[in-house]
Amino acid sequence: MLALTITTLFLLSSASPTLGKRKITPVPVLDVDGKPLQAVDEYYVIPAEDAGMAGGIGLGKLKTTCEINVAEDFTPEGIKTNGISVRFFPANSNDTVVSLSSDVNVVLSWKKSVCGKSPVWKLGGYETTSGKWFVVVGGEVGFPSTSTLSNWFKIGKFDDDEKTERYKFFYCPHICKYCKVVCGDIGVVGNDGLKRLLGISHVPATFVFKRKKI
To answer: Which of 7, 29, 205, 208 has a CA-to-CA distance to 168 between 20 and 30 Å?
Structure first.
C-alpha cells in the first residue's frame, strides 16, 4: 500500500550555505561516442552490464492501480531493444549540456497517455510491505523547489575507469539549499514478470547513453 509520500524524505535544516567555496568546473556526461549529452537531444539509456538479457528503459507495473513504474526491459530470449528514448532537462535552464551530479528531470519520449500520467520520472512509489522506493512516472518538468523534490535525479560516474563511460542514476536533489534529503543509487528493486523495476537500491544499475538518430 502506498501510504507514504515523498515529503517524508526530507527535513528542513537551519544550516546556512558555506561561504568561500571554490568554483568547480562542471564535467559533462558522455554518450557512447564520447560526446557530451545535450539537453535538446534524445538518448537511449541502455544497461552497461546486462548478461545479454536486458534492453533499454521502458515502463512497467507492479500494482493493479495506476502507478506506472520506470523499468528495464527484460528479455530472457536475448532479444535486445533500445527501449524508450529520454530527454534531460537541467535544473538550470541555461545549461545546454548535462553535467555529472547535476540535478536533471528525466523525461521519457512517450507520446501515448498512460493512466493520464506525465512521462517525467519521479521518486514516489513507496511500498510499505517491502520498504522500497520505486521510480515512477507522473512528475513535472522544471520549477525546482521543495514541492518538486521528487522529480530531480542525478547522473554519476559508476567507476573511475577512463576507458569506459559507465554511469548510474542516483537520487539526491540539491535544488533546496536548506533541505536534508535521503539519498540513494537507482538500481533494480523488483520485477513485474516481464520488466525489472527501478528504485532506490544499494546496488546501482549501470548505464550507457546512445544518442537517438533522427
So the answer is: 7
